[in-house]
Design goal:
single chain; 496 residues; mainly alpha; two-stranded antiparallel ribbon; 19 helices
């Protein structure tokens, strides 16, 4: 148990596990921004350009950023109202009760863990390009046509274990590591983005909206479909701003709820600028259509355009740093969502255990580490599956949060709101329509963003696991009164 100063408090309420309070404003910004930038801009950039071209991809990201900003503003109001662990778990519980809260929280947790698996697999690819000779030795099996090598798997599992250990030992070390990695990432990206834009040319951007199989420019219908395919993945690349609500209970005393709301907005704007500038810099650096067959388009683009292996390695170094910042952030956030579900006696209560010495959700962290390690065993053949299934789970959570906010505007109008989203119901409605539209695009047959058969199988497994978790928590859930559950989930805000 910890008091507001972040020290262990033996007199604290033993019935409600609490987490150590020590994260600064810089720590929160690094957590959110670092989670959003990740490594997708290196591993998936070729797909963005191939689908929509550089300008089409920029437009898709600009539109997606605007939608995410509106959703982020909803989060900002809710986070300032209820700065407790698990974010969405608390908001949806206060609005709709335990069953819907559990569903939203469980799908969000699996969405976060899908990103962690994506990072665990991607780290072997990125580091393999930095290490002479790579990491691909001793093939052991194949998944979706992609070989899994023993050396790559061992590296992914070792990295997963190290990250799990850092998170287990305390939020202070994880937050400081995040801030350092984000600083190094910023210095590296400033160098190669500046080189690409200043040393490149706008003449390299056409075909602006992508090209046909014959090499001509896409027509508007094909271009819009390509931009739509990029647009629906934006929640996956931008999810990370909501790591702030998940960790909000661990804010240092000097960090106010209103400051948390501002940091959500600032982190989204910063990530949007980064993604758009990376696409522009790569598109301007050289003829991008010649790069579409490459695994890591950004690195190859700078190496070929400026005949500089150093720039290529700088891109890969930034990718590795971004990978670990994203992985660290999502791992922290996912464990807090699981912790909130366990503490609220909606999922198995063992997930709600707080370590008596470290003040961390230790059991939830161990679960997250085991899930990530298991997913990493699937190798690069599963990357696209985790991207799309993770995006679906997160969009579902975003959809639920927007409705939670609108419900609380009606049912709890007098709750203290240090930050209030302007515009009445307009912006929350736009956020709900946008998140709902992404969900529909992923389930309607024939849609360019529709889930593929293997992705439906994985989503079915996730749904089954969500159901199993609900059943495993049934015995404790039945004997917990709603008054007691409200205290466990909401803490000091239970009576508001």
């Amino acid at each position: 148990m910890c008091n507001r100063e972040g020290t262990l408090d033996p007199m604290a309420d033993l019935d409600r596990p609490e987490l150590r309070k020590s994260v600064s404003q810089l720590g929160f910004f690094a957590l959110a921004f670092g989670s959003m930038i990740g490594v997708g801009w290196v591993t998936a950039l070729g797909g963005w350009l191939g689908s929509a071209g550089p300008v089409g991809a920029i437009l898709a990201f600009a539109a997606g950023s605007a939608l995410i900003l509106v959703i982020g503003l909803c989060y900002a109001e809710l986070c300032s109202m209820l700065p407790v662990a698990g974010g969405e778990v608390a908001y949806s519980y206060r609005a709709y009760g335990p069953s819907k809260s559990y569903a939203i929280g469980a799908f969000l947790a699996f969405g976060y863990l899908a990103v962690c698996v994506f990072e665990a697999i991607s780290v072997t690819k990125v580091v393999g390009y930095l290490v002479p000779g790579g990491l691909a030795y001793w093939p052991i099996y194949s998944v979706a046509g992609q070989t899994v090598h023993a050396t790559e798997l061992a590296f992914a599992l070792a990295a997963t274990g190290a990250l799990t250990w850092v998170s287990y030992r305390g939020i202070e070390a994880a937050a400081k590591l995040q801030a350092l990695l984000v600083l190094l990432f910023g210095l590296a990206t400033l160098a190669f983005i500046g080189t690409g834009i200043i040393g490149g040319s706008f003449d390299n951007l056409p075909p602006l909206l992508g090209q046909t199989a014959e090499g001509g420019a896409n027509g508007w219908g094909t271009a819009l479909a390509g931009m739509g395919a990029v647009f629906v993945t934006v929640p996956f690349w931008f999810v990370g701003f909501d790591t702030i609500p998940q960790v909000s209970e661990e804010a240092a005393v000097a960090v106010s709820p209103r400051a948390l709301a501002r940091l959500i907005v600032v982190s989204i704007v910063g990530a949007a600028a980064f993604y758009i500038l990376v696409i522009l810099a790569v598109g301007m650096s050289g003829p991008w259509t010649e790069l579409l067959g490459e695994d890591l388009v950004a690195a190859v683009a700078f190496e070929q355009a400026f005949d500089s292996p150093l720039l290529a390695n700088l891109v890969l170094l930034a990718a590795a740093l971004g990978l670990f910042t994203s992985w660290n952030g999502f791992f922290l956030a996912g464990s807090r969502v699981l912790f909130a579900l366990g503490r609220g006696h909606m999922a198995p209560p063992s997930l709600g255990h707080a370590h008596p010495a470290y003040g961390t959700p230790s059991n939830a962290i161990v679960f997250g580490g085991l899930f990530t390690a298991a997913g990493a065993c699937l190798g690069t053949g599963a990357l696209g599956v985790f991207i799309n299934v993770g995006s679906f789970c997160m969009s579902l959570a975003f959809f639920g949060v927007t409705f939670s906010m609108m419900k609380l505007r009606k049912s709890a109008p007098d709750m203290k709101r240090p930050f209030r989203l302007p515009g009445g119901r307009l912006l929350p409605s736009i956020a709900a329509i946008g998140a709902g539209g992404i969900l529909l695009a992923m389930v309607i047959p024939g849609s360019p963003a529709a889930l593929k058969p293997l992705e439906w199988v994985v989503l079915g497994i996730v749904i089954a696991l969500v159901f199993v978790g609900w059943q495993l928590g049934a015995s404790t859930r039945r004997v917990t009164s709603e008054k007691e559950r409200a205290r466990l989930v909401l803490g000091e805000f239970a009576d508001d």
